[in-house]
Design a protein that fits this description.
- This protein is α+β, with helices and mostly antiparallel strands.
- It has three domains: 2-220, Rossmann fold (3-Layer(aba) Sandwich), CATH 3.40.50; 244-320, no CATH class; 331-442, Phenylalanyl-trna Synthetase, Chain B, domain 3 (Phenylalanyl-tRNA Synthetase, Chain B, domain 3), CATH 3.50.40.
- The chain is 39% helix and 19% strand.
- Strands 3-2-1-4-6-5 form a six-stranded mixed β-sheet, sandwiched between helices. A five-stranded antiparallel β-sheet has the order 7-8-11-10-9. Strands 12-16-19-20-21 form a five-stranded antiparallel β-sheet.
- Helix 4 (85-91) packs across helix 5 (96-114) and helix 12 (260-268) packs across helix 13 (275-283).
- 26% of the residues are buried.
Length: 446
């Protein structure tokens, strides 16, 4: 019975106590409404919080009305808010999914603090955990991503992670529990829905006990993460030291460890460095010049003769690079770009400003994405000679906000290849002698 498994899961994992004051994220859908009634019928102390993201017109309004009535009838306190999600996503260059996630968790935490709730409860279940695992896997992930969603993460608790979706639906059916159905959950343009409705059902056909197998796998991954963290903690103390507010990483000791890539990544990750930067450093460690710098938003790494040295950066030194290796086919941050290699230009290809055709014979990797700098210049395709990027922006009447949101793609020698979304550089144009053609397309996020 779901209610018994629910209480056992909370106790076994020491998630929270019955007397704890908790806040339930209540959308009105099957999962959160089931969690609502589990908490209510088992006499937990809770209030509810509902977000209207204004993404589904009348359906969004009806969700709010439903949740309002549900809480009023059950005498449960309800907090409500409304977001302009599309505007927020566009302004912050986020997908709708990421924008909604950022908005709701920020608001939940605000309500938690202001009203002295101990925890925020969400209705994520086993199927969500499995979907997240495969999403992480396809994007590239470490041990933490394999573990997927955790039952407790600081103030966020997910007490239904043990339950399959079908168990939750059965609980609602057996107890005549009404809920709202979000039709956008069936839209396979969203990545999660594509996994949910198209990919994971194939695994269930191959193995009818696929979900049970994944639940066991997650238990193994949890144990592996503990072993991994213990190893990393001990090795960090061996290969690095703090001195005068600087972190020195001994290169010889680092390279002699069994897993230098993972170790270096775990050392530099808290300072905002990306996995691509970690890979670039170690893949090219013997060729990096002494004095070479790598930047995150808050820190920089200096390649010294015997050490990698981490320091904070001043505003004047701050510059952020995102590396693109020649095997990349897709990147999703800071822009979503696809890379296709060919020997001939496809006849059906439409060359728009969001597409760059590049002579790959003339490229030197890794490529870099960065923000424009004041002294930048390039050789605009279709024009003669070089031009300051600032003059190009002025001539094209590109306003200040658009300039601030602009990115440039460069070679490792800092030669501009493409002012993304505006113009490619004449030095990298396709010619009759081009043997390798790189097609780069800027993709819109959902």
């Amino acid at each position: 019975m779901l209610s018994e498994k629910f209480e056992n899961y909370i106790k076994q994992n020491k998630l929270f106590q019955k007397e704890d004051k908790v806040l339930l994220a209540l959308s009105g859908g099957c999962d959160s409404v089931a969690l609502f009634w589990l908490l209510k019928n088992l006499n937990y102390t809770f209030s509810a919080a509902h977000c209207n993201f204004n993404l589904r017109n009348k359906d969004s309004e009806n969700d709010e009305i439903f949740v309002d009535k549900l809480c009023n009838d059950a005498d449960i306190q309800l907090f409500k808010t409304s977001f302009k999600t599309n505007e927020f996503a566009e302004k912050n260059k986020l997908s709708i999914e990421d924008a909604a996630r950022k908005l709701r968790y920020s608001w939940f935490e605000k309500i938690r603090i202001e009203n002295n709730f101990s925890y925020i409860l969400t209705a994520h279940h086993l199927d969500d955990k499995i979907e997240t695992f495969f999403i992480n896997l396809t994007k590239g992930t470490g041990i933490k991503g394999l573990r997927s969603i955790s039952s407790k993460n600081n103030n966020i608790i997910r007490p239904l992670l043990f339950a399959k979706k079908e168990e939750i639906e059965t609980y609602c059916a057996e107890n005549n529990i009404r809920y709202r159905t979000d039709q956008s959950n069936f839209d396979t343009n969203f990545l999660r829905n594509k996994f949910r409705h198209e990919i994971l059902p194939v695994f269930k056909k191959i193995n009818p006990k696929f979900q049970d197998s994944m639940l066991k796998n997650f238990g193994i991954f949890n144990e592996l993460e503990k072993i991994y963290n213990d190893y990393i903690k001990s090795k960090i103390q061996t290969v690095s030291k703090n001195r005068k507010n600087l972190i020195y990483i001994d290169l010889e000791k680092l390279l002699n460890t069994p897993a230098p890539f993972s170790l270096l990544y775990e050392i530099i990750r808290p300072y905002g460095f990306k996995s691509s930067q970690n890979e670039h450093i170690l893949n090219n460690i013997n060729n990096l010049q002494t004095g070479k710098l790598f930047f995150s938003k808050t820190h920089r790494i200096l390649k010294d003769t015997k050490y990698l040295i981490i320091d904070t950066v001043s505003e004047t030194d701050k510059e952020e690079f995102f590396y693109i290796e020649n095997e990349n086919e897709l990147i999703e941050f800071p822009l979503k770009l696809s890379f296709k290699r060919t020997k001939t230009i496809p006849s059906e290809l439409k060359t728009e400003y969001d597409t760059a055709l590049i002579n790959e014979d003339k490229l030197s990797y890794p490529l870099r994405l960065r923000k424009p700098k004041e002294a930048d210049y390039f050789y605009p395709f279709g024009m003669k000679g070089k031009k300051l990027l600032s003059d190009f922006f002025t001539d094209k009447r590109i306003n200040r906000f658009e300039r601030e949101n602009c990115w440039v793609l460069t070679t490792d020698k800092n030669e501009i290849i493409w002012v993304v979304g505006y113009r490619t550089d004449n030095r990298f144009k396709i010619t009759e002698t081009s043997k390798k053609i790189l097609i780069i397309k800027q993709l819109q996020t959902l």
